[in-house]
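Record passed on underneath.
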Amino acid sequence: MTVSLTYRPSPLGRMLAPTSIAVIGDPGSDAPARQILQNLLSGGFSGPILPVSAGIAAAGGVLAYPDIAALPLAPDLAVVAGDAGFTATSLAALAARGAGGAIVTGALPPGPPPLRCIGAASYGLIVPALGLNASFCPRMPAQGGIALVCQTAGFARAVLDHAASEGLGFSHVVALGQNDDLGFTAILDALSRDGATRTVLLEVGRIKDRRGFLSAARAVARNRAVIAVRTMADPEVDDEAEVSVGADLVFAAALRRAGIVDVSGLEEMLEAAATLSRPRRMQGDRVLVVSAAGSLGTLAARAVQAAGARLATPDAAEATSLSLLLPGPCEGPALVVPESMPPNRLAELVAAAQGMTGLADAILAVHAPGPTAEQLDLTAEALAAAGSTTATLPIIAAWAGGASAEAGRARLLAAGLPAFPSIEAAARAIGILVRERRTREAARELPPRTVLAIAPDRETVRRILARARRTGRATLTEDEAASVLNAYGIPTAPTRVAADPESAALAAETLGFPAVLKIRSADLAHKTSVGGVVLDLDSADAVRRAAFAMEGRVARRAPTARREGFLVQRQITRGAGHELALRVVRDPLFGPAIGFGQGGTAAALAGDIAADLPPLNRTLAEALVARTRIGRLLAGWRDTPEADREAVYETLVRLSQLAVDFPDIAAIDVNPLIAGFAGVMALDAWIRIDPAPGSGTGHLAIAPYPAERVRTVSLRDGSTVTLRPIRPEDADAHEAFFARLTPEDVRLRFFAPIKALTPEQVARMTQLDYDREMAIIATRGDGPAAQTMGVVRLIRIGDGTEAEFAIVVEGSAKGTGLAGQLMQAGLAWAREGGIRTVAGDVLAENAAMLAFVRRQGFTVTRSADDPELMVARIDLAG
């Protein structure tokens, strides 16, 4: 039982693949409209180009029209060049004429435009495959697999000029300008379905919809390399902020979770484009260095390790085979080819290494100018031939030198091998490949909304937050914050609240010495800065005296802070553990973010912090810790024993769960968290909350895995299956499911005979963003042995209120009612997500499917585009 998806042309689809273009504006000398028109006419676009300008008969040798109403057809794309008033009038007329959309090179008036548009202040749109250059770029870029989505003209010019010198080609160049209407979400969504695009470059200056941006970015990054640079202004650093995580760290974390490589500047982006636009990717982090000079090989090995990769070391059998190509044994950090050996020996070593399965994940070939130009050219020619005929791994070339090495680099680039003029640049390219692999792994992690095996005490947290609000407080006292952490299973130091110095002394006697005394105040996130913490108190009298002194000291240094007595703790010996800092902050762009790094009073100066977005699972928590310097020390160092890293990971996951469950928690600071061999303990904590309670998951930038949709259903034959949203780890089972479908089922599902799914198709089907699409599968069995029996898939289209569906079940499940169960599960997701209409195409010959969809409540009509197709549609709004 099968039905397929169908895609109808959208306004953006018409804009990106137009058959006709109108240019609206004054084509006088030096006018923007004139530049755009000239570039369109010289680009080779095969469709009608329609200038619109009052008072002229022709522009650029092409018949002009006095106004938009006079156009002989509704253009798929219009370029509007003028001020805000002119743009408003033009867009309204274009909408009335039925145009697809517009590029606005000037200003946009306030409010939603009457026609979908790219801009304001757009540099334009280029699609080389169509000969389309509706931009201010005077030269058509070469055709290729790179899509550039940028916001500023300067950035576009810099990338296009560099790409021309590197021989890189483009599928699309889309300049969003001020990103007022159609933005990153829509463009990335379109590129995710474009087979010609293999690499995407993003210049991000403004994001309007964080969740939509990350959702679309995840979709396009499934089967493509995506590289982004942030050009938005950094927020002012507030040195007095209670708790913070850098905006750049949060931005990088968000991109990492979407599968995007974040780079720091234009040069790094261009190097990344030169590397990742090639088809091969690293599957691990081991790099084999092959060098034509021993000293350069040593430098390259160091640079590779500094870039975050490991050196590949041949085993005994591999070393024996490789040594046959060398004058001596394989020793040292690199395989070194002496000058005395033939010019093609470097390439022969590279080819031999590629044939050794498991030896390396990439090869760095290092060369410098030899005694003669002819030798240098022969070496490059041999490596180019090896790279283009036998390459199974990424090959990066460090072709050091100036003018004499340029021809060799050009030959390697022409063969599809990234070639750089220095070892350092080549090592940075290796680093990009390693980071790209890790971002792909991070993007596959989709934790559910609830990840804790033991349910936290959410009701206790609600009571604590409600009590703080009733007393007019936006912050919790330290003991209240500790109770919140305890409710989520995070250990805290035993604490007593004392109303006065005498009570503090008694509490210390109960807890034991040495004691710690702290001021109790919800207004002081950093109590040490006002003298609100005293350590090493060894007697009740010492506690009493410290309390009297603290009262006066805090009153002088923080006169407006509310003081509610004291907190007394038994002092924990910190020498047996590491001081860590855990934070939850609310980023202005991406919402809640988790920070982890070195703790203690000097944490801000140390600058050792990494960030990620909730929800976290154990895998993501481990990766977060690994991105810090203090994380490496947790494994133990010299006389410092190994800390309980599992407890650290678990604490991060629990803190993340707290941030997921309570959108009204604005900030959390746990500093220090002591991590030792016996576990972890929070010694101090602070929490800030919103004035009103929150709920749901709308505050999260990344939609969690919808585990709430997992359920078990009974079929007509008495068996049971589990219905649940698909996960990335279902890839193998999904391939096996497809293999069990009959050729006829495949033809009816895909409208064509398909023997096997490609890896890209499998990734597309199993790695979803659940805000945008849903695939609910039926599985039987547990663990790796579980079998997929059927799947229903729904994808939002247009403005998100419509969806297209596909459904297929294997032969053994037909007649059991499984298809109906799947369809209703899919429609339930659609209703709850605000989708009003669901539709799909069915072959007219597929009588069984047509009868099925009618039983499910669909209406069936013949397609206006293809008489062999029927369109099944259901209205969910009622």
